[in-house]
Structure formats: C-alpha cells, structure tokens
Amino acid sequence: MSTTRTAQLMEGAGLARRIIEETATKAAEISRFTGTAPCLATVLVGEDPASVTYVRMKRARCAKAGIQSRHIPLPSTTTTVELVDTIAALSRDPGVHGILLQHPCGPHIDERAAFEAISPEKDVDGVTMHSFAAMSFALPGFVSCTPGGIMQLLDAYDVELAGKHAVVVGRSAILGKPVGMLLLAKDATVTYCHSRTTDLPAIVREADIVVAAVGRPRLIRGEDIKPGAVVLDAGYNPGNVGDVDFDAARTRARLITPVPGGVGPMTIAVLLAQTVQAAENQLGLQER
Amino acid sequence: MSTTRTAQLMEGAGLARRIIEETATKAAEISRFTGTAPCLATVLVGEDPASVTYVRMKRARCAKAGIQSRHIPLPSTTTTVELVDTIAALSRDPGVHGILLQHPCGPHIDERAAFEAISPEKDVDGVTMHSFAAMSFALPGFVSCTPGGIMQLLDAYDVELAGKHAVVVGRSAILGKPVGMLLLAKDATVTYCHSRTTDLPAIVREADIVVAAVGRPRLIRGEDIKPGAVVLDAGYNPGNVGDVDFDAARTRARLITPVPGGVGPMTIAVLLAQTVQAAENQLGLQER
C-alpha cells in the first residue's frame, strides 16, 4: 500500500473524441435525410493571430465532423453597428444553424451587443443573456461550451453532485458564472470565488468539487485540495500550465483533469454537438 | 458592559418610506412635466385571496405615490396563450410603463412563457430572463425587487461586500439566484445553499453576510450566526416568523433585519421606484 495516492485522470480528450464521433454520425444523417449539412457561421473581427488560429481549428474540426462552416472575416476597423448587423443577418439566414463570434473582438466593440444579435436558437456557443438565464433556470437552451464540457465530464465519471460543495474559482460570463449555475441546477452547494476572495485556500479546502476557471497559473495549490475531491481545471496558461498545481493536487484528488487534454478538448466537442443539435431543431428533426 | 450583544436593526420600513417619498416626488414631476403619470399594469389570474390582497396592496401604494395602475383581472380558466397575448399587448402599449404579473398563476399556466412576454424595459418586477442575466452581468436593467431591496439595505447600512463571504440560503429565480448574482457583482464571495445542502449550519457559520430566502420558519439558528455577521431575512412565514431565529441571531449579529419591517417593505419600494424609472426611460426623461 502506497502512502501517495494518485488521482484518476478525467480524460477529456477521449470523451471529446467519442462525442465528436457521435456528432459526425448525426451530421451525416442530417445531410443524407435533408440534403442540407449543419452549418456553423464563424465571425472574426481583425487578425489577432491567436483568434485566427482558434477559428481555423474550429472550422477544421467542423469539416472533419461533416459540419459546414461559413467564415465571415471582418476588418479590425469594423464598428459595433456593422458587427451587429452582420450577426443579425446570420441569425435570419436559414442556411446558417449556429453562430460563433470569436472573441475578444477588440476594445472598440461592444461585445455584449454583438453577442445579443445572435438568436438564441443559433447560440451554439452559449454566450447570449438568454442562454445564461436558461442555464440558470434549467430551461431548454444551449449551454456555454466549456461549462457544458465540464458537466459532461462530471457525468461521464459518475461524479455525484447533489449536496456536494462545489467551489468555482472565476466568475466570467461564459465560464465561471454559468458553470456555477449548472452545478447549482444539479443540486450542488455552489461557492463562487474570484480575485477579491479573501481566503481562497480556506474555501478550496472545503470543496468536494473544484472548478478552476480563472487563468492564473497554479493559483490553486495541491495542499489545499481536500483528499478525495474532484478537480476540473479549465485554466490554460502559457507552457501548458493550468490554474491548479497538477502534480501536487493529483496526490490528493480522487479525479482530476489533466492540462492539456482535460477540459480543453470538451469545449469544441460541445460546440460541434450543439451545432448539429441546432441544425436538427431548425430542420424540424428534433429527436432529443 | 453587557455580555449579551444586540444587533442593530436594519430598518427596511423606514428606508422603504424614504424611497417611496422620493419616488412620489419624481412621479409628480413626471406627471407635471409630461402630462402623463407613470403607469403600472397589474395582471392577476384567478382569485386566490392572498394574491388578490397583494395586488390590492401594491395598487394602493402606487396610488399613494402618484403612480397610476391599470388592473387586468383574468379568470382562472385563462390559458397560457391568452395570458401571453395579454401581456404582450401591454408590452406594446405606450400608456403602460411597467408590468407586474402576480404569481403564482396556477399550475396550468407556463409562468416562464408569461414572464417572457414582458418586454425588458417594462420588467419593473425583474422577473424576465433578460433581467436576470442583466443582474448577473452587471448590465443596465431592472432588478428583481426583493434582491434589489436587500442590496439597498446593505448599501444604506454601509455594509462592505468586497471580499466578504455571503451565504445565500435559497435559489429561487426571483430571490436566491439574483441576490447571489448581485452580491457577486459587488465582489462578495458567494455561496448558494438550498434544501439539498449537506451541512447548512457549518456553511452559515462561515458567513459574513447571511441572506435567508427559503421560506422555512427559523431554519437558520442563532447559534450558527458568526459573531458580527450581517443577517438579511427575506423569509416570511405564518405568524410573522422569518427564516432566521431572530431572537437568538440578534445576540450574535452586528446588523439584522426584523421580520416584519425588514426586507419585506423594501420589495414594494423597489417596485415603485423601478416603475417610475421605467416611465422616465420611456418618456425620454432619463436622468440617471
């Protein structure tokens, strides 16, 4: 018997692959049945290299899964009004089933206004106010992709949530806030921590489930992980470092996501799955 | 020096009176300036005695503050479609500035669909998905009235929130969830507890601020209140009993709301203030 326990890895990469395979099967069925492939519109403002890479990666994954994508690159001089008009037109376009606005869009853009031009039924990235409220109230709708991926990981690894204390570190509109609401809907007791939290380690020590979503390398120390806790690290910092000190945390946690290969791959899997779901809904093929 | 401390009372009744006075002054100015009084539409389905009383009380308060109200009583046989149509018509009616749907509406009504027929700019009761997301993302919009009242009490009594641990007991769509989001927006560390929470007393013991919003008489024991904590009791149970054991809690808390006369009166004050604000906005008199 070893005195050093080692957590089981929550292998998002593998789960994401299975989800994408299922999604591709469905996309092929939709194409065969209706003559129309699911279509994701990707909107990119400017030429930020990281954003260009992200969009290219997402489109490549779409293509592999039998999802068409329609790319709308806009100059960095695009105004909020122009961007809103472009997105509103995509919302009305019956040939587009899902809309992804790559963000950040730049400081001169009112990003919230741009997001809100996405109609809820095409909000496959889960960024609208409607989608957030739907997640919060357990109503039908699309989820934010990373939170959705985290919930699927928890489900795949049979993590019980009801009555457990989940600590979410981070409170962004598309990650921390919605994942907390999704956990609350599953009857977890949920604590939101953030940069202003006074004694983060003390709160983390109480957590049965830790979701790190803050973007600060190794902010969460292994020694603060409660033995047997479940740790999901949505942080992705330079040098493939998460928000959790992985090496130390894995000696205490029961389940932990690696970085990379944990939460990250789930995000795009949820995006693709929701795009196909949106196409099903809009083409009148609801099966769920 | 006494060994028994006694908390200062957070007197919602007095604060509400001041807010309503200011609101009445504004309403009178609006009427004088535009010839149009602010108008709240109240919609009531059926004749549940408690609901009838609540609506009558709200209308009486409106009248005293110089706010017109237009009452739309609907038979208990009203369908969701009919209710949605009625509310949608009020949303389009330029003579109506705010809309209040008294709820619960009865089990045969899709209450969410009815709420969503209220246009966000007339959602003075803060019940729509849009208003919830606006509260969550600190965007302009109306707040749910009881959460808004709680935040105004905290402000009036100079309670610092940044970095403090706020424990919200209850997770309803118009009380627990939004008040947690408003506290989070003020940089509190926020924990949502509810009926499935495993060890509520242990969590309450960590709270600098306790918001009780669950409707279970004296669920929160005085002995679990951290010395010096701030306690807001939005519970209102038969016999004028809150969700907190007031007599025991006041010996430990620094500030506490009485029941009645604490949070309760603030709810209607916020409703009236937001109705006048809505009229200002819609009549082109924005001053805030």
UniProtKB/TrEMBL annotation, chains A, B:
Pfam families: THF_DHG_CYH (PF00763), THF_DHG_CYH_C (PF02882). NADP(+) binds at G170, R171, S172. Keywords: Amino-acid biosynthesis, Histidine biosynthesis, Hydrolase, Methionine biosynthesis, Multifunctional enzyme, NADP, One-carbon metabolism, Oxidoreductase, Purine biosynthesis. Its EC number is 1.5.1.5, 3.5.4.9. Residues 144-282 form the Tetrahydrofolate dehydrogenase/cyclohydrolase NAD(P)-binding domain. It comes from the Bacteria. The keyword NADP applies. Pathway: One-carbon metabolism; tetrahydrofolate interconversion. It catalyses: (6R)-5,10-methenyltetrahydrofolate + H2O = (6R)-10-formyltetrahydrofolate + H(+); (6R)-5,10-methylene-5,6,7,8-tetrahydrofolate + NADP(+) = (6R)-5,10-methenyltetrahydrofolate + NADPH. Residues 11-125 form the Tetrahydrofolate dehydrogenase/cyclohydrolase catalytic domain. Belongs to the tetrahydrofolate dehydrogenase/cyclohydrolase family. Homodimer. Catalyzes the oxidation of 5,10-methylenetetrahydrofolate to 5,10-methenyltetrahydrofolate and then the hydrolysis of 5,10-methenyltetrahydrofolate to 10-formyltetrahydrofolate. This is Bifunctional protein FolD. It comes from Streptomyces litchfieldiae.
